[in-house]
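Q: Hand in one record:
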Amino acid sequence: MTEMTAVPVTVPGTPATPRLLAEAARAVDAPDLVLAVSRNGVRTVHTGGSAEPGPVPRELMAYELGSASKPYAGLLLARLVARGRVRYEDRAADLLAPGFPVHPAVRRITLRHLLTHTSGLPGLPADFYPQAVPRWSTDPYGGYPADRVVRAFLRARPRHRPGTRWHYSNFAVSVLGHTLAAATGTPWEVLLHQQVLAPLGLDATRVRPGPDGTDAVGHRRDGTPVPALDTGGFTAAGAVRATPLDLLTFLEAHVDGPDPLDPTLNAAFTDVCRPLLRRGLRHTHTHTLTWFQHPTPYGPVLFHAGATLGQQAFLGFRPGTGLAVAATATRRVHRADTFVATAYGLLTETP
């Protein structure tokens, strides 16, 4: 049985919230677990896990977000569009390598295609796997640097015409990050900080490991610790690290809106929350520019999950209701894992 502790943060939550989080936490087995809920800005954070707590409280540790980093890349693109730096319909190859000869399908891939997983690119480059498989459980991405991601894109032969099919692609979102850096002449990490993290006051969010003792340590299913994730050239697709409290701040900005005196940031939040495409059988799956969207009895929910070699994260919110949920865990995902379902339930099954 894991040890659980309810921790009110900022101000106490509603009477039912700590109990709800405690019940939900019992369904998840992980060395470290944080379930954080914000209701109209009122926060309640529940921490626990099978590991002994360290000197830094769990809610103040930075966790690897994996693919839950993509909403940050999406907000960055939307902010640059709102500021007139790029356009959604700009062609990535023209910004990344002007005049370089590429396949006609690659030439048609736009920034919007890259972010919305409709570029026709595979999930990862074909030549990624030979170097990754020998170290799949320790460091699959670190040996594939940024220049190699760019070269793989420029020589790609997409299977489908851009804009015609949805296929989840870490490759595509990583190319987006490199393209935005090329278009602005600014490294992606600096660009993200300038356009997203600093304006939102996300001081505990970063894309690299922090000082010793401030980052959560991931674990395999058997509880063995794993090294910190090195995303190599796939930074935009999965490198963000953040504390649960910073995750709530990020989500609250989506629910409530940022500083009304910043029209470009307001426009960016509007863009990333607007339903954009449908896919799947009878087009039942809805997506915004960067979030998955599902209907619930209480209104639509927007969410994204992510996993790394030894950690998991879930981000979600209900527009118009003031509800946001952030969850982190330090155990590698597996087939019978309950983490995402538990966090999703907090978002979708409560009024």
